[in-house]
Each structure stands twice: as structure tokens, then as C-alpha cells.
Design a protein that fits this description.
This protein is mainly alpha-helical. The chain has 14 helices and no strands.
């Protein structure tokens, strides 16, 4: 894992893994984009609920890099794999190819999404091309990608998973908090956890974002200098 699982979950929250790139999903997304084209063009100053699929996809590609794609494809379930392949199709990069190739056999029912991402990467959506990909699906996805490319891409910071060198320190801190709980109760344990490295890695993404997305050291300094 390169990124915290709760941050990864927030990035793809709301994307429908079983519908992504299916004809009805693409048709609905394109129809909404056409009907509300003026609102879409004003993003992020204006938003419309019918354009939510655009906003969620844009958030995902704003966060996407090679490490996040690897986590989505290999560290979780078919749901994350589907979302990762969809985002890679919308923002293809040459460095994604090896991960997509490796992921093709992991979830047979989502292989069509991986093949779509590879076809988008190669710019080849022909029926009978190298990657099994319906030509209409390719064309519709390319239209959506073009619409997204015209919008400001949001910066979506994510927390890195703790390095192996930090794992031991976190385990020791967790043990101290458990012992404090047994001796003095939940209030003392919660007070000890607040502002700790454990708190940094356990807080959900919205809570971390409300703090201004601090790094670990910045977070600890702002809490009186505690560390693990």
C-alpha cells in the first residue's frame, strides 16, 4: 500500500464500480454533459447534481498517479480495481501500462475496463484491435475524457501509508495507549491518542482535509510536538 486506505476510499467514493463504462452509464453521463454544458464549463464555480459523475471522475483523476493506480488495482477488491481502470482510461499515462497489463486477469468481470484503459492509452478503439474494446464505448469514453480535460483539475492530496520504519513506533504507541486505557479508562486513552501519530493515520480523510492536509510532522508540531 502506498496510500492510506481511508484516503483511497474517499477518492473513489460515489463512483459506481459495476456501472462504469457500461452503455447506460456512458449515455447518461454524456446526456447530462450536453444538457448542462454551460454549468459544466463553469466548474468549480458552479455545479449541478446531474453532473456528479463528472465531478467524481475529475476528483479521481486529480488524485491519480502511478502509486494510487497500483493500490487501486492490486491492494483491494474488484470495486477498487474497476474504479482504478476507469480513472486510468480518463487520464492515461505510459507508466500505467505495466500495471494495467498485470491487472487484466485479476478480476475477469472487470477486464473490459482494463482493456478500455489500455485502448485509451494506445488511442486505438477499433473493433478487433489489440484490446477487446467496443468502438462505441471507446468513442463515448473519449468524449467524456475530452470534456474533463477542458476543466480545471483539482489538487487532491493524499496521505502516504506509514513507512516500514514507522510501523514499529506506531505499534509501540498503540500498546502504550492500550495500557493507559486498562489503567485509567477511555477518557485518558482518548486524550493520549489525540494529536498522536496514531491519530494522524486513523483519522478519516474529511477530518484531515479540514485541518489543511498537514504532513505527519506538521500535525504533531501543531499538537504540542507529540510523536510516536
Amino acid at each position: 500500500m502506498h496510500y492510506l486506505s481511508q484516503d483511497l476510499a474517499w477518492v473513489i467514493d460515489g463512483l459506481p464500480p459495476l456501472a462504469l463504462a457500461k452503455p447506460h452509464f456512458l449515455a447518461a453521463m454524456l446526456a447530462a454533459g450536453e444538457e448542462h454544458a454551460l454549468v459544466l464549463a463553469e466548474y468549480p464555480q458552479a455545479r449541478h447534481e446531474d453532473l456528479e459523475a463528472y465531478y467524481l471522475s475529475l476528483r479521481g483523476i486529480g488524485a491519480l498517479d502511478e502509486d494510487l493506480l497500483h493500490d487501486l488495482l492490486f491492494a483491494h477488491s474488484f470495486r477498487e480495481l474497476a474504479c482504478g481502470a476507469w480513472l486510468a482510461a480518463l487520464a492515461p499515462q505510459p507508466s500505467y501500462r505495466r500495471h494495467l497489463l498485470e491487472a487484466r486477469d485479476r478480476a475477469p468481470h472487470q477486464q473490459y475496463l482494463v482493456d478500455l484503459a489500455l485502448a485509451m492509452l494506445d488511442g486505438d478503439g477499433r473493433n478487433g484491435g489489440e484490446w477487446p474494446c467496443d468502438a462505441q464505448t471507446f468513442a463515448d469514453t473519449r468524449r467524456i475524457r475530452t470534456a474533463l480535460d477542458a476543466l480545471p483539475r483539482p489538487a487532491v492530496p493524499l496521505r502516504r501509508a506509514p513507512a516500514p520504519s514507522l510501523q514499529q513506533r506506531l505499534q509501540e504507541e498503540d500498546q502504550r495507549i492500550r495500557e493507559l486505557y486498562r489503567r485509567e479508562g477511555s477518557a485518558a486513552a482518548l486524550a493520549a491518542m489525540s494529536g498522536s501519530a496514531t491519530a494522524f493515520y486513523r483519522m478519516d480523510y474529511p477530518a484531515w482535509h479540514r485541518l489543511g492536509c498537514p504532513g505527519l510532522e506538521e500535525f504533531l508540531a501543531g499538537q504540542g510536538g507529540r510523536d510516536a
